[in-house]
């Protein structure tokens, strides 16, 4: 399998970590999604113009959640429960808002501006971090399943990009401390 993506993307990292967890071979085809060449490759492989995209022989899959289902199917694992789907939706919504913030910063836009659009993103991120903190304390992320991988990739990436810190949240801080020595997170660290 070939994964079109970048080594810094939290959405790409979660798929790389999942493949490592299952011992499945997945080659990262690294692109700069904002360079002219990268955009050409994206247009050819994924019309959504986002990473990751998975290419497995003739089959191409868009979107990390669908790719995860595809990989779990290949590995013979059950799909997500409804509560796991909700955890993934929470993580994805916060991650999407943070990606919006990062692209805005790189476009020279002030994400702390007092306007409706950026106010909504800040509110969503803060509320979801609060909910996820509580979910961690309630034990929802005690196991190393796919939502756990996604939460770790979100928290570590937001910290790495200096967009939002998990350190103000006791549950999230304990969560990162628990998982940071996992080999599949060390092997996919965006700083390396
Ligand atoms: N729902 C998508 C989101 C993927 C995503 O937003 N990827 C970012 C990179 S971290 C991206 O490609 N952004 C480009 C853009 O928003 O134009 C997934 O889960 O795969």
From TrEMBL:
Coiled coil: none annotated. InterPro entries: Glutathione_S-Trfase_N, Thioredoxin-like_sf. Residues 1-79 form the GST N-terminal domain. Keywords: Transferase. The lineage of its organism: Bacteria, Pseudomonadati, Pseudomonadota, Gammaproteobacteria, Alteromonadales. Gene3D superfamilies: 1.20.1050.10, Glutaredoxin (3.40.30.10). It holds the Pfam family GST_N_3. It comes from Thalassotalea euphylliae. This is Glutathione S-transferase. GO terms for molecular function: transferase activity.
